[in-house]
Please model this.
Amino acid sequence: MSRGVTPGQWLGRIVAGAVVAFFVLFFIVPIVWLLLASTKSARDLIENPPFSLGSLGSLAANFQSLVDFQNGALLSWLGNSTLYSVGALILTLLVSIPAGYALALIEFKGRRPLLMITLVVMLIPNTALVLPIFLELSAVHLIGNALAVILPFSFFPFGVYLTYIYFSTSIPADLLAAARIDGASEFRVFRQIALPLATPVVALVGFFNFVQNWNNYFLPFLMVPGRGSPVQVGLAELLSTVPAFNPTAIGVVSIQLPALALATVISIAPVLIIFLFSQRFLVEGMTAGGTKE
Amino acid sequence: MTVTSTLATAAAADLSQGRQRVARRKSVTSSQSRMGYIFVSGYTLLLLAFGVLPTLYALVLSFTKDGAFVGIDNFVRVFKDFRFFPAVGHVALFLVFWLVSLVVFVVLLALIVHAIKVRWISSGIRFFYYIPGALAGASSVMLWLFVLDPSVSPVAFILEAFGFESFVQTISPDNLPVIFTVIAFWTGAGGWIVVMYGALNNISNDILEAARIDGAGPVQTAIQIQLPLLRKWISYMGIMSLAAGTQLFVEPRMLSQASQAVVPGDYSINQLAYLFAFKQNDFSGSAAISIILLVVALGLSAFFVVRGGLFERD
Model:
């Protein structure tokens, strides 16, 4: 691009730059504001400029009021979220990695139909089956049980598909064939050849599964109402006790807006931290560019 | 409607393009296939329990009432419900706004960001666009409740410029399709921008260089070379978003909660299914709505798998 730049091109660049900058603000400003809001008192929030910093004291007070809310409900919501997300994560990995491996590298009857069904199911939005799953689980009296969340979360066809793709492309079938000729059992082939090479795809499947589990609202909202709620569902409950949004809640132990902002920050913190640490692969690795070679 | 799942499926779709043919062994030993069955058994069980069975169960429920076969009665009742078509209308209007904004801005932003040659600026911008994807579901709606409330909003001046003085005014039902679009765009667009950026990266530099030597400017290059090559991805994004958008639930539910039902509790189709099941104890009606939504989602995805070409095998 060493040619001279015409005024028209300059104008084009300025417009393009402005569009990009506008959207950077659009995506980032709400998050920055939310972080700041959680450090303010209710009065600061309304009276001070939106992008001013509050104080550590207010932050602590907000946190205290959240902890006090229904005797530490927030903490038990976070505990529930952790239980559901991590439990499902472990089960997902245990189930998806061998399945993806088998679909990619083992010949067995029914392999192709299973792959096709996986593809179709993968594209169905995960909320579409929530009500039917609820009806099914209520028929077997599992509603309210942690399994009613963990088991549906562990059904993760995308993870199976990702593993399938990974093993099909990264492990030459000849390598496995050689090991088999040497007399290694199928299980040993999997454990000693495939698994050590699978770290990237385990991380990938784990990442997507955890984020999706943590953020899911509709499914746990139905499956584990009340005490069993994860933090996403709890957040909505918290909302209904905020006087600013719900005048009838005045008098009940009320939550002020900055505390609600802090609760929102806390509810997203684990995922946000994972995002920050996975920055490189989110922006580069996952996409078409990553599979160019 | 989580961004990670859309991005994730896009990534999978993409990976399938770069995949090589798997060499198949001619002879299949029985110990191999036995191991194959053991390896897929856990997944198959979950697939049956949470993919196939609920679908069948919902199908049965939707054609029966209290255990007796009633034909399409449940569907007729749902269609006749005075709330059904307004809900369909709401969701449809939202989908129009959302799809148009996605296609226009995601493609535009991906093209611009892709044209930025300084690596760290380009990747930094993509990261900024992507980060709201961490906030899905209730958290992102909660954040937007603040942003839409003029008394605390950091962009109160914008709301006031539109004449919105209070939260209730901001979220008046007429504004909802736009508001849901903004929220959905905010959480989801970044993931798609990254996907499109990746797809643009796959266009060989030689082609772009040749176009430049022929005197094509950035706009011409975009229209004549990049856009046609992105078409498959744009339709993928459209179909995925369409399927996900029909499921609208948490956004209207939380707005309804926060606004003393200024936003009605039966705004979206999924909310209506929820009301049928839990307020009216009409599981058959609820199942009928689920089946309708499922047929739409399944139809779209099957169409894409079969016709889209992204998942072509071997």
In short: The first helix of chain B runs from residue 3 to 18. Confidence is low (pLDDT under 50) at residues 14-26 of chain B. Chain B touches chain A through 129 residues (CB under 8 Å).
